[in-house]
Amino acid sequence: MEPVTKVEGNAYPWGAKNIDTDIIIPAHWLKTISREGLGRGAFETVRAEPGNIFDDERYAGSPILIAGENFGCGSSREHAAWALNDMGIRAVIAPSYSDIFSGNAFKNGIVAVVLPQAAIDRLIEVARTDPVTIDLETMTVTTPYQDRFAFEMDPFRRDCLMQGLDEVGLTLAKDTEISKYESIAAAQRPWMMRESGHAGVAVEAGGRT
User: Fold this and answer.
1) What gap in Å lies between CA 188 and CA 71, rounded to an integer?
2) pLDDT value at 108 more than 60
3) Whole-number average pLDDT of the chain
4) Is the per-residue pLDDT at 121 higher than 80?
5) How far apart are CA 65 and CA 111, in angstroms?
6) Torsion sign (Cα): 72, 125, 61, 114
7) How far is CA 13 from CA 39, 59, 76, 89, 209, in A?
8) What pLDDT score does 206 carry?
9) In DSSP terms, which residues pair with 132 in a beta bridge?
10) Mean pLDDT of 188-192
11) Which of the 8 DSSP states describes residue 175?
12) Which of 16, 38, 139, 198 has the least CB density, counted as fewest CB within 10 Å?
């Protein structure tokens, strides 16, 4: 996962409320376990409508999506976060999210910013013509017109995003501590460690085999 300290550029000024994960990525796209290519199916039903915002050349490739409340509701499919990533969206700004989507977004390096509706309305207005900047260091969303909206985020999630640490990265960061624990465990309970050439492993609770 790539470190994220700032996301800036054009934004999709959408603002739609109660967008569920089936709208983000329809169910028939869930047959794949690959994260690549899902961007083609992102917002498929919305893109079927003439003049939709996602096919508007003014916002093509925008790294930010401005949405309405309860974004990401519905099923828990992680493919929704994968689809957003694949179409180039690195951050979403909305008044609220479903808990599961918020967690999936974080695990996939997507910055989920929560701002009140008044701030969303202003950002949608600005995004129609100008870029938006999300800064994780200052915890603010700003515009070229001196708008400055402060937001909050769980410190752990913020730190992981800024360091580019997903669940695998967090585990690898503890490699030294894990290796030390395993060495101590092997010395204190050797019967629990599998040795090459042995077919079975003894367990402490059941006695030695």
Assistant:
1) 50
2) yes
3) 88
4) yes
5) 10
6) negative
7) 18, 9, 25, 13, 66
8) 46
9) 9
10) 74
11) H
12) 198
